Amino acid sequence: MVGLKEELLKSIWHAFTALDLDRSGKVSKSQLKVLSHNLCTVLNVPHDPVALEEHFRDDDEGPVSNQGYMPYLNKFILEKVQGNFDKVEFNRMCWTLCAKKNLSKSPLLISDEDAFKVWVLFNFLSEDKYPLIIVPEEIEYLLKKLTEAMGAGWQQEQFDHYKIALNTSREGLSAWELIDLIGSGQFSKGMDRQTVSMAINEVFNELILDVLKQGYMLKKGHKRKNWMERWFVLKPNIISYYVSEDLKDKKGDIILDGNCCVEALPDKDGKKCLFLIKCLDKSFEISASDKKKKQEWIQAIQTTVNLLRVGSPPPHKEARQKRKELRQKLLAEHEELERQMKELQTANENKQKELETVRKQLEAAAARAAEEEKKRLQTQVELQDRFSLELEREKMVRQKMEEQVAQKSSELEQYLQRVRELEEMYKQLQGALEDEKQARQDEETVRKLQARLLEEESAKRAELEKWHLQQQQTIQMTEAEKQELENQRMIKEQALQVAMQQLKQLELERKEALEQYEEVKKKLETAANNTKSWKDKVAHHEGLIRLIEPGETITRTIFDESGAWPGKGIPVLLTASGREVIICS
């Protein structure tokens, strides 16, 4: 009953939309009352005017929409349908309401009766969604059936071109577009109107009226035992026979069920191609026109009985249901594929975002590394400048000391002539001692500089190890990321090699600074030795000293081992003979 209800709703939908003149989706109550009354009449449903008036009360305002009409239609009409009505009469009533409004005004190669049958075929093959359309697969099925009924060859390539053009603009055709397509003769070229009309009628009988097979055969009477020619029509559960094929004078029915059977009979009484249909209460002897027809009828009847035994629907309805299920399955697979594609696209976009984030992080790390390298180079330049300045200063000090030594040597030659020059020489000696002190401070400065270079070298080495660790972590990424980041890793390796070279250069510079520091230290020791030697020479010059007179009270002050004077008392020197001498001031 559910399938019957869906088929009835399709024809009623056409009638309802035809009454919707302004295409607002609503129909006036008076028109719906007339439509409901006509539906009850053609469907053999008891008409309930009280329920009709109650549902469409006059105090309701405005027309009624399709959703508003459906509750009444389901409750008082469709749920009461028993199937004992004329489908053709029902469809013709709905066709009458909608044909005049929607049928094309241009001349067609088919009659209005054929257009009506195509419209009914459309309702049978259309999808169960509104507005109703027939999909390209069902159009191909219908056109193939019509071409086969006309005895022509199917032009698959021609339909493929039409299908491509149709799919680019819409999902399918409406009923009126299907009528225009068949009526235009696009797929029935070379066929006359009568052939097309007979093909439409044959397909209509098969799909709508459930006519599985029909034709003239001889039937043996039960009372007179005479043979009469009858027009037999095979349907899913009955075989009807008429006087002629116009179906006006029906002579009887053969009720089929799962207990029936059909078997071939030998020729007898001058009749050939005999077969017997056995039912529970009666048997029927039939004579076909030839062996081929006999075999076709036996096979058709046996197939019908087998379907009744298993409770299967007619072949064309079962095939339509399978086609719908296949389309639904393909649609579900297509939707699942689209969902998976969207998920993959989303995952790909997320991956691209992650890669972009990693790229930005690498760029930021490279920028930080470049900035740190720039600072390191700047620090190195500053250290070089400072070291050059210190070297220049040391050179000036050394030159000055050399000049002082030369001057002291000249003064030593004049010790016997100039007593006062000794005091000047003493002042110069004190200046040399100050220079030595300054040199020691410079030595300390160089040592601190070396320590800082070592700390910078250690920090740089730790930073390089950190970069190397980051590089190793980057290498452990996924294989797809490894391929994309390979070039950036090579760049970092090159940067690492450059940094290592710079570190080696810095190590060489530190060693050179250490060597220079050792040289300066040796020079300072040499200068100290020279100063001590010079002091000894001064002590031996007895022409510039005077003996200590007896009875004089002096303060004894002796130079320490380094030759420095403590600065208190009178400077006293010990001669080689052990006598104390006072240095003149």
UniProtKB/TrEMBL annotation:
It holds the Pfam family PH. Its main location: membrane. The keyword Cell inner membrane does not apply. One of its GO terms (molecular function) is DNA binding. Keywords: Cell membrane, Cell projection, Coiled coil, Cytoplasm, DNA-binding, Membrane, Nucleus, Phosphoprotein. Transmembrane segments: none annotated. The SWAP complex consists of NPM1, NCL, PARP1 and SWAP70. It is found in: Cell membrane; Cell projection, Lamellipodium; Cytoplasm; Nucleus. This is Switch-associated protein 70. Residues 210-306 form the PH domain. PROSITE patterns: PH_DOMAIN. Phosphatidylinositol 3,4,5-trisphosphate-dependent guanine nucleotide exchange factor (GEF) which, independently of RAS, transduces signals from tyrosine kinase receptors to RAC. It also mediates signaling of membrane ruffling. Regulates the actin cytoskeleton as an effector or adapter protein in response to agonist stimulated phosphatidylinositol (3,4)-bisphosphate production and cell protrusion. One of its GO terms (cellular component) is lamellipodium. SUPFAM superfamilies: EF-hand, PH domain-like.
